[in-house]
Fold this sequence. Notes:
Layout: E1 6-13, E2 38-44, H1 50-70, H2 91-95, H3 97-110
Antiparallel strand pairs: 1-2
Amino acid sequence: MALHSGTSVSYDVEPFLSTYGEKATDSAFPHSDSPLPLNLYFAWDLPTDDDFWYAALHTSVQTLKDVAIAEGIYKSDFTAYPNYAISGTTAEELYGEANAARLRQIRAMVDPKGVMELAGGFDLG
């Protein structure tokens, strides 16, 4: 870790009860069958090490997903938990294929000039 100016690595699992989403209503995040949110936090000092640590984060996320799928506690079609999603996460990964398409339709109706895109955040594509 010190070779790449790393100062901290943290993996936090926040288990939700299986009933967490049973009263979920129609919204952007399809959370009625939400998986366990997983918060990965890596800290480092030097901007020259950004690529190393971003790659390490992406590798960690994929490895944990693969293990969870193999263990039967995670489905490959689960969406990412938006509050903890890593940069570059697609709208489909955040909201699901159908929901991302629906959100794009809503955006086209209520924000045809893309004003809300100026606020940043994840791109609906």
